Amino acid sequence: MAGSFDVLIIGNGVLGLSTANALIARDPEVRVAVIGPVARTYGASPAAGAMMGCFGEITRASVAGKYGPIKLGLGLQARKLWPTWLAALNAQFPEADRLAITPGTFVVANNRSGLIEDENFTVMRRTLQEYQERFEDVNPLHITGMHPAGDSRPTAALFMPDEGSLDSSRLLAGLAGAAVRSSRVSFLEDTVSALVVEGGRAVGVQLADGQTLSAKHVLLASGVQSQKVLDSLPDLARRVPRLLPGMGTSLVLETTDFPLNPSVIRTPNRAFACGLHVVPRGANRVYVGATNNTMLAPADRPTVSDVFFLMDCMMEQIHQGYQGAKLISTAVGNRPIAIDTLPLIGGTSVQGLWIASGTYRDGLFLSPLVAQHMAGLILGQDGLMENVFPPERKPINRFTREEAMEETARHYAAAGWEHGIRIPKVGWHETFARMFKRTITTVYEEIGTDYVLPPEFVYVVDNDRERMVPYFRDYYRSVDAAW
């Protein structure tokens, strides 16, 4: 083989780079190679808003059932690790390059979405109280950086001083720089076409140019692109919940026309996606995001509709003065969403093959926890968390079908309100409710499985039934056959 290492990490996003740093911090002898193109074209990390919090992501559905509190617990565990994690990175940097979390998050609820927004805001506030987290109710009309249109006035707001944001591009640069300074980490700007397995053990990878690299351990941490690599082992791939991309579009804007808020301003999550969020990016710049489009293949360019939607939301719901802002850049990221929306973290039945993916919207925030957990397991040490979400498992039903259908209907209604729907005042509010129910019911019936497709995927199927129904039906049948 062309080269030999102790650990090969497939993926140079935040999880891959963080794990490389965790490995060399724990073992002074370990030799690591990180494989991935510098552009990270289909990754999630370069386009991440990097809101550093777990309570701001809470929804009525996210904290429900057996797995909701477990996922929230992972976020709380990760939050405790960030200060020492950043301190260790900063110790290696010149002062000008040191990283810090920008504190504070305002969460505002307005009437531009459906009832799902009020419900999620209420559950978020109640969960903050249950966990005795610091927050305060604030007058939404007195938040710096907010001057929404008259029909988009917020109805409630709260401020969380212990949640904030981090510049994702600076974090990636810092993680890469820390690894580069170590003679034990090699960077290979390439892609992996296949895993090499001998006698039930992963012994290396084959690169796109045909070369092979050998290793004692292989970590698959390349976001949604992990699926292509995993598919080189079809028997194993059928036993791991499939990864699909959640395309998110973001903008960076610059303005000096009005004071910007030094903290995050966001809404609760709503309508199949994360909430509208405006994240500080320096003195006169902000990052704006709000979208999530679940797809079969990752995207590398924004759509006109998503850019228009972001601009409209930002000017209508945050500050009308953004109409004069300069558009500095657009970005597209592909969040790795497992078919059951839960993480894939840990080892597999192929000895020496590890996976860290499926983190959806939480990958960057969870990175200190996931990276140090994976480093410990790979080095034969203890991990940092219970192995609740092993990669090799049947897709988990987080909800009953009836619960999922009810939640999906809420999202459909919210999407309509967010995009300015006007329902004729002749009883059509009931007509639309019946239409949503029929649509959702037939999606589940046509797929025909006891596995419960999460709400995030239902509209994808409905928009292209001819192609999507056979796709998901065949997928679930393959899962049944594998188990």
Describe what this molecule looks like in 3D.
- The chain is α+β, with helices and mostly antiparallel strands and about 475 residues long.
- It contains twelve helices and 18 strands.
- Strands 3, 4, 5, 6, 11, 12, 13, 14, 15 and 16 form a ten-stranded mixed beta sheet that branches.
- Helix 1 runs parallel beside helix 8 and helix 9 crosses helix 11.
- The longest helix is centred in the N-terminal third of the chain and has 24 residues, at about 65-90.
- The chain is globular and about 70 Å long.
Q: What structural class do helix, strand and pairing data support? A: alpha+beta
What share of residues is helical?
Answer: 25-40%
Q: How many strands?
A: 18
Count of helices? 12
**Unreliable parts:** none
Report the radius of gyration as a whole number of Å.
22 Å
Major β-sheet, in short? 10 strands, mixed
The overall average pLDDT, rounded, is: 94
Topology pattern, helix = H, strand = E = EHEEHEHEEHEEEEHHEEEEEHEEEHHHHH
DSSP strand content: 15-25%
Shape: globular
Span of the ends, CA to CA: 34 Å
Protein name: FAD-binding oxidoreductase
Organism: Corallococcus caeni
InterPro entries: FAD-dep_OxRdtase (IPR006076), FAD/NAD-bd_sf (IPR036188)
Keywords: Oxidoreductase
